[in-house]
Write a structure and sequence with these properties.
The complex is a heterodimer of chains A (400) and B (271). With 400 residues, chain A is of the alpha/beta class. Chain A folds into 2 domains: 147 residues, 3-Layer(aba) Sandwich (Rossmann fold); 221 residues, 3-Layer(aba) Sandwich (Rossmann fold). Chain A contains 15 helices and 14 strands. In chain A, strands 3-4-14-9-10-13 form a 6-stranded mixed β-sheet, sandwiched between helices. In chain A, helix 1 crosses helix 4 and helix 4 packs across helix 9. The longest helix of chain A is centred in the middle third of the chain and has 24 residues. The radius of gyration of chain A is 20 Å and the shape is globular. By secondary structure, chain B is α/β, with parallel strands linked by helices. Chain B has a single domain, classed as Alpha-Beta Barrel (TIM Barrel), CATH 3.20.20. Chain B is built from 12 helices and 9 strands. In chain B, strands 5-4-3-2-1-9-8-7-6 form a 9-stranded parallel β-sheet. In chain B, helix 2 links the parallel strand 1 and strand 2. The longest helix of chain B is centred in the N-terminal third of the chain and has 13 residues. The N and C termini of chain B lie far apart (39 Å). In chain B, 54% of the residues are buried. The chains are: A alpha/beta (400), B alpha/beta (271). The interface between A and B is large, with 33 and 40 residues.
C-alpha cells in the first residue's frame, strides 16, 4: 500500500488533514525531479547553508584508543548548526510552491525550530514554532535565537512538555489552519508522506559522505553510525549506503538513565508496535496503548516513537539499533571537545559514544564514519551541569 | 437491523434529529461515571458516544484533552470501558453506545479480542478519529463480522471524489465535521455547513450527524433542521466541570434534556 515501508508507516490522522497530506504528496512528486526546484534548493544549500559539509578524519582519538579510523560527517558546520536545515529549507520551498503563506513547526532541541525560523526569515514566510516548556527551559539559547529570527514561539504545557507534545500542538494548529498553513515536520516521523519527504531531503548527507569517503580512502566505510530520535539525520546518512551490504549501519538511541531503567527513549531497542502521531512503528507504550514518558539528556532524542523506515530497517536486519545512556553521552561530549576540538550536540554525542566503544575493537584498516548531526553550543549549560554531577558522584566513590 | 439504524429510523418517523452525546468513561471520576452516563441516556440522548480516554488525543481541543487526561489518571482503561457498558446494559439501558477512541488504544488491546468483547458488552460501533477510511480495511474486516458499525468522518476539506469512497465504507451513520479544526465549544456554526451537509446527502443514504463546535440548544436546533443528528461533547464536559459534586447529575440531566428538546425538526432561519 502507498505510504508504507513494509508494514510500517501509513497516515493515521484526522480526516480533515487528508487533503493537505495528499496535496503535499502530489506536489512533492511533481517537483522533486524538477530541475528548477532542485537547482533552487542546491544553490541555497551551497551559498546559504554552507554545503557540502566537510568529512573530518580524527587523529588524536585513534592514536589514543587504537583500532579503526574515525571520520565525522560535519553537519554541525551547517548554518544554524545541525542537519535540520537541509529539510527545513527544501520543505519551506515546497510549501511556497503549494501556495502556503504560513508555516508551523515543532521543535525538541530547538535545532529544527531555529532552522525553520531561519528559512522563513530567508524566504519571507510567517512562522509559528511549538516547543515543550520543559525543552524550552533546557535549550534557552535556541529559544532566544528563534525569537530573534522573528518566529512566533508558542510554549506547550500539555503532557510531558517535550517533543511529542510540541508535535501534538503543531498538528492541532495545522488541522485548524489547514487552508493557508504548511506543517513543516522536522523528523522522518508522522504520517505519510512526511517520513519519505524528510528522508529524501536529508539524503544529501549520505550522498556527500559517500563521495567524500571514496575521495579520502578510495573505498566504503565499514561502519556508519548515527543517533536516532525521530531518525532524520540517521536516515539521511544511511540512505547513502543502504545498497552497500558490506557497510554496517548502526542507529544509536537514547538509553537515558539506563536501558533497563524504564527511563529511556529507545523504542527500537525496548519498544513494541503501535500507532504514534500518525504512523505505525515501534514505540514506547503501556499495556493499554498509552504513550509512555521518555527520558534523555538530549531533547532531540527524547521521543517515544521513531520514523517508520527505521522500524522497517530494524526488522529487515539491514540496520542494527543499539543505545547509549546519558552518562556515556556526556563523557563522549567532553572527550570530543578535549581531544579533537569539536563540540558535539548531546544528541550526536550518543553516536560518538558508540563509535568510541566500537573503534578500539576493530583493526586499524577499518573505517568508522559517524554522523555528527549538530553542534553543542545549545547544550553548554546542561552538559556542564551533567558533567559536574558525574564528577561529584565519582568523588563520592559511586561507580559511574 | 442494528440498534443505531433502528434509532435513526424511529427518529425519522417522529421528525426528530438524533442527539448524540459524548462523554469519556471515568470522567470526572470512576465513582460517578456510570451514573452520569445513565443520566445522559435517561434525559433523552439518542446515541451515546463513550470516550475511551487517550492521553494524546490529536483531534481534540483543550476541553476534551483535559477531560481524557483526567480520566486516564483516574485509572480508566479499555477493560473498564467495556465493563461500564456491560453494567449499563444489565441495568436496562438500551440506547445505542459507540466507543470513540484513538487507534492505539484499540490496536494495543488486539482488534479481534476487542470486537468480540465489545459485542458481548453491548457496544454498537466505533468512532476512531485517527483512522481515515483509506487506512481502515483491516479494521473493517475485524469489526464487520461482529455486526459492529465503523463510523467514518467527512470534513469540509474532504474532496468530492474521496467522499464517494468514504461513504461506501461507512456504516451506522456518517460523522460530518462542521469545521476544519479540533473539538471544542464555538460561538457559532460555519455558514458553509448546510451546503456541506447537502452535498454529502447527494452521495449517501446513511444518516448524517454533525459534530465539532455544537455547543448549545440553538446549535442543535439549527443542525437538526438539515442533518440527522447533532453531536455534543465539549459543551457537556464544561457543564460537568463547573458543577458541584452534589448537583452534577442534576445539571447534566437538565442540559441534555434542553438539548434534546431542540432536536424536533423545524425550519430554522439563519441569522
Amino acid at each position: 500500500m502507498n505510504g508504507f515501508f513494509g508494514q510500517f508507516g501509513g497516515a493515521f490522522v484526522a480526516e480533515t488533514l487528508i487533503r493537505n497530506l495528499e496535496e503535499l504528496e502530489h506536489e512533492y512528486e511533481r517537483v522533486k525531479d524538477d530541475v528548477n526546484f532542485r537547482n533552487e534548493v542546491a544553490a541555497i544549500l551551497k551559498h546559504f547553508v554552507g554545503r557540502p559539509t566537510p568529512l573530518t578524519p580524527l587523529h588524536r582519538i585513534p592514536s589514543k584508543l587504537g583500532g579503526a579510523k574515525l571520520y565525522l560527517k560535519r553537519e554541525d558546520l551547517t548554518h544554524t548548526g545541525a542537519h535540520k536545515i537541509n529539510n527545513a529549507l527544501a520543505q519551506a520551498l515546497l510549501a511556497k510552491k503549494i501556495g502556503k503563506q504560513r508555516i508551523v513547526a515543532e521543535t525538541g532541541a530547538g535545532q529544527h525550530g531555529v532552522a525553520v525560523a531561519t528559512v522563513c526569515s530567508l524566504l519571507g514566510i510567517e512562522c509559528v514554532v511549538y516547543m515543550g516548556a520543559v525543552d524550552a527551559a533546557r535549550q534557552a539559547p535556541n529559544v532566544q535565537r528563534m525569537k530573534l529570527l522573528g518566529a512566533d514561539l508558542r510554549l506547550v504545557h500539555a503532557g510531558q512538555q517535550t517533543l511529542k507534545d510540541a508535535i501534538g500542538e503543531a498538528i492541532r494548529d495545522w488541522i485548524t489552519n489547514v487552508h493557508d498553513t504548511h506543517y513543516l515536520l522536522g523528523s522522518a516521523v508522522g504520517p505519510h508522506p512526511f517520513p519519505k519527504i524528510v528522508a529524501d531531503f536529508q539524503s544529501i548527507i549520505g550522498q556527500e559522505a559517500r563521495e567524500q569517503i571514496f575521495e579520502a580512502e578510495g573505498r566504503l566505510p565499514d561502519y556508519v553510525v548515527a543517533c536516532v530520535g525521530g531518525g532524520s539525520n540517521a536516515i539521511g546518512i544511511f540512505n547513502g549506503f543502504l545498497d552497500d551490504p558490506e557497510v554496517k549501519l548502526i542507529g544509536v538511541q537514547a538509553a537515558g538513565e539506563g536501558i533497563e531503567s524504564n527511563k529511556h527513549a529507545a523504542p527500537l531497542v525496548k519498544g513494541s508496535l503501535g500507532i504514534v502521531q500518525g504512523s505505525f512503528t515501534y514505540m514506547l507504550q503501556d499495556a493499554y496503548g498509552q504513550i509512555l514518558e521518555t527520558h534523555s539528556i538530549a531533547p532531540g532524542l527524547d521521543y517515544p516513537g521513531v520514523g517508520p523506515q527505521h522500524s522497517f530497517l530494524k526488522d529487515s536486519g539491514r540496520v542494527e539499533y543499539t543505545s547509549i545512556n546519558d552518562r556515556e553521552a556526556l563523557k563522549a561530549f567532553e572527550y570530543l571537545c578535549r581531544t579533537e576540538g569539536i563540540l558535539p550536540a548531546l544528541e550526536s554525542s550518543h553516536a560518538v559514544a558508540y563509535a568510541l566503544k566500537l573503534a578500539p575493537t576493530l583493526s586499524e584498516e577499518m573505517i568508522v564514519l559517524v554522523n555528527l548531526s549538530g553542534r553543542g553550543d545549545k547544550d553548554m549549560n546542561q552538559a556542564i551541569e551533567g558533567l559536574e554531577r558525574l564528577a561529584q558522584l565519582e568523588l563520592e566513590g559511586v561507580t559511574v | 437491523m442494528s440498534r443505531i439504524e433502528k434509532t435513526f429510523a424511529q427518529l425519522r418517523e417522529k421528525e426528530e434529529g438524533a442527539l448524540i452525546i459524548y462523554i469519556p468513561v471515568g470522567y470526572p471520576n470512576l465513582d460517578i461515571s456510570e451514573s452520569l452516563i445513565r443520566a445522559i441516556a435517561e434525559s433523552g440522548a439518542d446515541i451515546i458516544e463513550l470516550g475511551v480516554p487517550y492521553a494524546d488525543p490529536l483531534a481534540d481541543g483543550p476541553t476534551i484533552q483535559e477531560a481524557c487526561l483526567q480520566a486516564v489518571n483516574n485509572g480508566t482503561n479499555l477493560d473498564i470501558c467495556l465493563e461500564t457498558v456491560s453494567k449499563l446494559r444489565a441495568s436496562g439501558i438500551d440506547t445505542p453506545i459507540v466507543f470513540m477512541g484513538y487507534c492505539n488504544s484499540f490496536l494495543a488491546y488486539g482488534l479481534e479480542r476487542l470486537a468480540a468483547q465489545a459485542v458481548e458488552a453491548g457496544v454498537d460501533g466505533f468512532i476512531i478519529p485517527d483512522l481515515p477510511s483509506t487506512m481502515a480495511q483491516p479494521w473493517v474486516q475485524k469489526f464487520e463480522p461482529h455486526g459492529l458499525d465503523l463510523i467514518f468522518f467527512l470534513a469540509p476539506t474532504t474532496s468530492e471524489e474521496r467522499a464517494a469512497a468514504v461513504v461506501k465504507q461507512g456504516s451506522g451513520f456518517l460523522y460530518c465535521i462542521s469545521v476544519a479544526g479540533v473539538t471544542g465549544v464555538r460561538q457559532s456554526l460555519p455558514n458553509e455547513l448546510p451546503g456541506f451537509i447537502h452535498q454529502i446527502r447527494q452521495q449517501s443514504t446513511l444518516p448524517l450527524a454533525v459534530g465539532f463546535g455544537i455547543s448549545n440548544a440553538q446549535h442543535v436546533k439549527e443542525v437538526s433542521s438539515y442533518a440527522d443528528g447533532a453531536i455534543v461533547g465539549s459543551a457537556l464536559i464544561q457543564v460537568i466541570k463547573q458543577a458541584s459534586s452534589e448537583t452534577v447529575e442534576q445539571d447534566v440531566r437538565a442540559f441534555v434534556h434542553q438539548l434534546k428538546s431542540a432536536t424536533r425538526r423545524v425550519a430554522v432561519e439563519r441569522v
